[in-house]
Amino acid sequence: MNRLPDLSSARLLVVGDVMLDRYWFGDVNRISPEAPVPVVKIERSEERPGGAANVARNAAALGAQVALLSVVGDDEAGDTLEHLLAGSGIQASLHRDPAISTTVKLRVIGRQQQLLRIDFETAPSHEVLNAKLAEFDALIDACELLILSDYGKGGLTHITAMLERARKAGKRVLVDPKGSDYTRYRGATAITPNRSELAHVVGQWRDEADLAQRAQKLRAELELEAILLTRSEEGMSLFSAAGVVHQPAQAREVFDVSGAGDTVIATLAAMLAARQDWPEAVRLANRAGGIVVGKLGTTIVTREELEAES
Q1: pTM greater than the 0.85 cutoff
Q2: How far apart are CA 212 and CA 217, in angstroms?
Q3: Does 141 participate in catalysis according to the annotation?
Q4: 110 near 136, Cβ under 8 Å?
């Protein structure tokens, strides 16, 4: 077992789309007479912070100091999310927007398999987002590194302004991207797309050489220090001015990939804030991602778990 660096002085600010992940667990013994679908008899339920809130929880679980800035509705789901974050050691600032409903992802699980996911979501109002931008200015000086967690729910409408402010303050910024317009991430330190996300932007590559050429071209166009491509069973690839560094995947059973990207970017950010170099930070992020996919649902990797695997 290798000891992780001391992360108690690593100060992170996570900004982005938070959500409440709800899980209904039950047993499946028959097919509905009304339609060819399974009937799930619900036996228990769980609620967990998701999206940017899960990023913040993962970073805090490793020992980093974490502030979280986002928007939720003035509703029961928003109350639940605040309650869940209250005991996590995270400095959470969740702006309430009475015009929206807090994003909720409801997953129905039967026999340890996800049978259905139901999403509830609306975009936050411009006024609340402006208020969040003002608080962003107040919080940025206290952090060393920012994570912008974009789930496409509207919470990062002002991401261009945030990146500009971060650059002026001399802060490094990691972005978990979404969508096909990556120009909005220009000037970040790094982005962490998965295979399908990157292919949607640069096109499908023929081989490793073609992938490297496309990724490095995008990196230069966006003025990034690095692109970390997460590749599931193929591991991870880091593209930077120094070339390409590949981390192979760990051989383990994949149980659930939901939230794995949150764990990866949280671990990467915490290690970079602790003055680890890129290859070592990527190595540990890869290990953390390998651990979390062996768990059910949106969850965290603890410092002890990561040390045991390192």
Answers
A1: yes
A2: 8
A3: no
A4: no
